[in-house]
Amino acid sequence: MKYLIISCFLLFSTSIFAQQAAIVSNQKLTATYEGGDIIVSYNPIKIVGLDSLIINVYRKGNDGEKLIRANKKIAANKIFKFADTTLRTQPGVYQYILKVKRDTITVETESTWAYAFAPDVRPIATVFKAVNAKNTNNIILSWKITDSYWMKNITLLRSRSMDGKYELISDINPQDTLYIDKVNDANEPFFYRLDMKGFNGDVVYSSASIVVIPQFPIVPYKVGPIKAEQKNKSIVVSWNNDNPSARGFYVKKRIGNAGEFEISSPLIFKNKTGQYLWKDTLSSLKPREMYQYVVIAESNSFDVSKHSDTSTITYNYGNLAISPPTDLRIITANDTTYNLVWSIDSLRQQEISGYQVYLKRKGETIFKPLKNGNTNNSINYVMVENLKDGDSFQVKSIGINKESIPSMTFTYTNPFELNFGPRYLKAAVYDNLLNIKWLKSENQKVRAYKLYKWNGKTFVLVETITPDKDNVATRSYLAGQLNIYKLRTVNMNGVESSGSEVLQVN
């Protein structure tokens, strides 16, 4: 009976140890976060002939590898536990390594990872800024993230709109707080966002999106070959575009081969076809006159390319043999009587019997004969009643049974009628930048806004702002000094307004 009891006890003990060995073989070393400490647990396998073991425990983290238990003697058949209480002020991700020694020989090595922080910890980007380095395409991004030890990785993303698709720019080391992005467009918004992923889950936490509008010079390439050819009553200028930095193009023209080229076309916006043409119409052309054309490209930074190669053509239109007057202008002696004056070709005056003046009021679409606007060939002016800003004039030469094409259009501009655009400015200082805001008109189309600052002698341009904006943050502000600003509006014809009321900021 005694031997039977002993045999049963041995069988029962063997069963327990077998179960324990099975558990240990699955996970012998664990490290668990509990109340601020890491509880390390090791379940050894009994080594034949040994009742005790010697272990060394190491911990690896951002501060390097440290020996935290040295030559610790433990029982060979009992689970060993201890609390690492040194991490309460050093949360993070750590690796624990346990080495079992027999005499001086390491017979077993086990390792495990521990997350030394509470499960409800979340990272927050308390600071996230984007600054355009002056006169460059570098966007300097900087941030500060609370509980950054939680993060396994950070991704930086960029979009061209707040709610648009964000593209991956770079994977960032969680220890980094700075990144420099390079963009290829000026005066256009770029939005940035940080996505943060932790060690202990697949949840991604995103920062708030921030925006920057870089301003730096983009000089487009010189436009390639252009062609000018006469088609019916027009001269057609055409060219191809392979200019990635161009947002649009201008055609410039001059008469003959001397003098300056003048812009003759509106901005011709870039399109997907890459093929462009512009028609110089009959109203601005004279028979048997030679014309020269060039094309320039303009970028989003409003910088322009060099002139293209010149294309030269002589305009021929046989039915119109006499030339129209040139150099139309308004002359007044007393600000009450206005005369439209023009120059005539004295060498061919005998072919001309008189002149007819045409008027198109601002907002009208066609020229109509001016009342009392016809003269004989010896008079090169007419009096204009009720002259208004924006009135346009043309003059034709009249011969026997023929007339010239219309002269080049002259549009009268009254400098006292340039009072358009925002009138009043508001300002506040944030982060050493002066933020200036104004009220936009919903009905008025503008090309740009320009901010000027007084330098003691005159107002100088410090910022050019796109028409969709109603504010600007200027670095020209000097704290503690008197800063004087004025905002001018550029209309779609390229005319600048007289400006807003003066803004003074100390």
Report what the structure shows:
- The chain contains one helix and 38 strands.
- The strands form ten sheets. Strands 10, 11, 13, 14 and 15 form a five-stranded antiparallel β-sheet that branches. Strands 18, 19, 20, 22 and 23 form a five-stranded antiparallel β-sheet that branches.
- It folds into five domains: 16-116, Immunoglobulin-like, CATH 2.60.40.10; 124-212, Immunoglobulin-like (Sandwich), CATH 2.60.40; 225-315, Immunoglobulins (Immunoglobulin-like, Sandwich), CATH 2.60.40.10; 326-412, Immunoglobulin-like, CATH 2.60.40.10; 423-505, Immunoglobulin-like (Sandwich).
- By secondary structure, the protein is mainly beta.
- It comes from Pedobacter frigiditerrae.
- This is Fibronectin type III domain-containing protein.
Which terms summarize this structure?
mainly beta, Immunoglobulin-like, 1 helix, 5% helix, 49% strand, disordered N terminus
Low-confidence stretches: 1-26
Write out the CATH superfamily name of the largest domain. Answer: Immunoglobulins
Count of helix runs: 1
Give average pLDDT, whole number.
Answer: 85
- The CATH architecture assignment of the largest domain turns out to be Sandwich
Largest sheet: 5 strands, antiparallel
How big a fraction of the residues is strand? over 45%
Q: Outline, from the CA principal axes?
A: elongated
Separation of the first and last Cα atoms:
106 Å
The CATH topology of the largest domain corresponds to Immunoglobulin-like
Q: Considering DSSP H and I runs of 4 or more, what fraction of the residues is helical? A: under 10%
Report the strand count: 38
Taking all Cα atoms into account, the compactness measure Rg is 41 Å
| Count of folded domains | 5
Structural class: mainly beta
CATH class of the largest domain: Mainly Beta
